[in-house]
Amino acid sequence: MPLTYSVIVCAYNEEAYLGGCLHSLRAQTRQPDEILVINNASSDATRAVAAGIPGVRVVDEPIRGLVVARERGHRESTGDVLVYLDADCRAPLEWLARLSAAFDRGHTVAVSGCYRFYDWDRVGRMLIRLYDYTLAPATHLLVQELLGIGAVLYGGNFAVRRDALERIGGFDTSIEFHGEDTNLGRRLSAVGRVRLSRSCWVHTSARRYKVMGRGAVFGLYVRNFWSELLRHRPSDTSHEDVRDVVAAAATSGAEARGPRGSGAPHHLSEEQAGAGMRPRDG
User: Residues of 103-122 as b/e, b for ≥16 C-beta within 10 angstroms?
Assistant: First the structure.
């Protein structure tokens, strides 16, 4: 029988991005067998946005945390393959069809694709594309095929067989944020092949890079990747959520401007918030 696919979107305060993500899933040439949104303790209209789109099931997870939300999606979903997509991503029309085709190859337990940024400058996009075509595949070859210690996995765009995920005990909810994708790739590579597929790319936001800075984000990823592979635990045990940073900047800006006319709240765009916080990383 053909495999069934559950697409799971974990969302904390993603009202601004979630609708576009879900509509891109509804437009797939190979329709998901199930679309779940894990509303992860959101305080904005995330739940309402998800509930307003036909074919989407919303699950409320009151304990905040990405890995907690991922594991809740694992438990609530029904598909043979669990596909995780970040809420700020937009999937091309044939994305799920390409992911499903990648599972036709033997012993594949997970497939991950790269990103193309829809809101970043040319230099940032060029650097990431260079990484996707050189360093990422070379590192994946080194750690999976030569050293046998793990795999490269893009945390915002991956699919995993349910039976493989259950063989490794599900997601490690002791991890707060950083290194969770590497942890999953490391443990999955012990039970089968994790594949990188450039054809399974998605559009996504560069908000983390813009708010925190390229250097800091690259540094976070590199040190937590190698720490998780070599020490089996991430280097950074806490993180600053970019959504909270942007929200705080918006609130501060509104207070500085003072009340206007109707008294309605005024929100900074992420570009405006990021411009004022360039020295910080995330």
Answer: beeeebbbbbbbbbbebbee
pLDDT digits (tens, 9 = 90+) for 95-152: 999 999 999 877 899 999 999 999 999 999 999 999 999 999 999 999 999 999 999 9
**End-to-end distance of the chain based on CA atoms, in angstroms?**
43
pTM value is 0.89
Question: Do 69 and 77 contact (CB within 8 A), yes or no?
Answer: no
| Token pair in block for residue 88 | 């700020």
Q: Kindly give, in sequence order, each residue whose CB lies less than 8 Å from that of residue 132, ignoring residues fewer than 6 positions away.
A: 114, 115, 198
Q: How far apart are CA 107 and CA 150, in angstroms?
A: 15
The whole-angstrom separation of Cα 272 and Cα 282 is 17
CA separation for the pair 76, 159 (Å, rounded): 16
For the chain, domain boundaries: 5-205
C-beta separation of 56 from 69 below 8 A: no
DSSP state of 150: -
What are the tens digits of pLDDT across the range 18-71? 999 999 999 999 999 999 999 999 999 999 999 999 999 999 999 999 999 999
**Vertex 130: Cα angle to 125 and 133 (nearest 5):** 125
**CA-to-CA distance for 137 and 135, rounded, in angstroms?**
6
3.40.50.150, 2.40.50.140, 3.30.70.100, 3.90.550.10: CATH of 5-205: 3.90.550.10
Q: Give 33's contacts (C-beta < 8 A, 6+ positions apart).
A: 4, 5, 6, 78, 79
Give the side-chain half-sphere CA count within 13 A for 113.
29
